[in-house]
Amino acid sequence: MNAVTLAESMANIGNIGQAAPAATEAPKVQLNPAQPEPAPTRPLSVWLGAAMRAAIPPLLGLVLFVGLWALVSQASPQLPGPGKTWASAVQLFSDPFYRKGPNDQGIGWNILASLQRVGIGFGMAALVGIPLGFMIGRFDFLNRMTAPIISLLRPVSPLAWLPIGLLVFKAANPAAIWVIFISSIWPMIINTAVGVNRIPSDYMNVAKVLNLSEWKIFTKILFPAVLPHMMTGIRLSIGVAWLVIVAAEMLTGGVGIGFWVWDEWNNLNVEHIIIAIFIVGIVGLLLEYALIMLARRFSYE
Amino acid sequence: MEKYVQVENVRMVFNTKKGPFVALRDINLNIRQGEFVALIGHSGCGKSTLLNLVAGLTLPSAGAMFCAGREIAGPGPDRGVVFQNHSLLPWLTCFENVHLAVERVFGRAESASSLKKRAHEALALVGLTHAEHKHPHEISGGMKQRVGIARALSMQPKVLLLDEPFGALDALTRAHLQDELMKITAETKSTVVMVTHDVDEAVLLSDRIVMMTNGPAATIGEILRVDLPRPRERLALANDPQYHEYRGAVLDFLYRRQLRPAA
Contact B46/B22 with Cβ under 8 angstroms? Predict the structure, then answer.
């Protein structure tokens, strides 16, 4: 209100001996001298500068890493250097989807086979873990009931579960999926339960005052409030799942990136092993990035 | 109705790690239908505790409480609560926040369109029709509090309970919302219980001011009847000797008789 009256009085002052429309425009400029000019087109050089500043540190890091690698590979002749590995990678990825029998398939098939196992194992873990997390967080009795079991089983190394899987399922593939399932379920249970516990008491008071049904509490309050925690759990889980798949496949064999690493070790093809390390890293990065995007899509702030 | 809200010999004891803590004792209070009652006292005197008891969010350790002849056994939509920190759900728009309350109270008896109409009307009552489809983080603190009031009013509660609703707002916004609240309660003839620590707010809005002694074991020290004619005008009251007398009486209670040694 004060601003309006001030603007009006300024307009009146400016009005003396001037045309009205020009006068109403003039004081605006005087009032906001600090306001930036309308739609300034920033010069290209500024954008380029910003892009350079953002890109230089990570690029420098990568260059240093590759340089160090090249140095080490020169000192120890068994380790292939960056150049040799790159050449091998170009050859490998020129035909990623070939099939020459069950134990010799293109790198693309291997990656897809691993992703499929992770997808199934992780998906089942999410289907079980997230609802379980909600119930543990919502009902204190259940929380205290399951706490000792979770604390006991969570620190167990993922591969310790493999024999149990082989015993129960009597096949390698379901056993690998089982390992993914059991090792990636914990972050989802725990984070979801913590999320439910950490819901601000204000929201629960709203639920109480409005006398909402348990279903409405779930859909309108619990679920949206817990979603960020849940997404963190999912992200950690998929990280674990992808971490574990390589090890599990090394032991179970078949088709998959882990098996492929072991196969190439038996062939003493060290370039391929290094390539596999990069593949595992990049795919893990992409999975994580996809989930961060998904989480951002669902955040309400 | 002379005893619309009844609080009889209520005592509230919290079990803490250091043993039982008596927050309230011997609380007796009757509130008429359509009355505006303010609870005032120093912080820690249990005025919010008393409001939560009326809301049914906590149950008294001893004593009885009734609202419109029925015992208060838990929270219910007949008592609309406006919380100090608005407590809107951040993932719902203003409209959806109000609609959630409307749906719960009238959902069984009324059609979807009439439920929407109620939500629209409640928001129009607090002058927020233009912000219906905004999320809480997109609007100012005063607007959030108004949505909170709209949500509480939309349930057509028998009693409106306000827990320091304007405490977190700046002075100008607070004054503006106080005026609006006066208009709304005059229009809806609501019964209101409001917790406040603002003496001017209490005198301006209330029919009676319930002044509480300091805790622990706080109780009602004195009840002041405010006989100022309605509608009340903030500017006119500023020079009204009667207003200043009431104000003086509350200040005297708070700062002479109940002055806290610390804090």
Answer: no
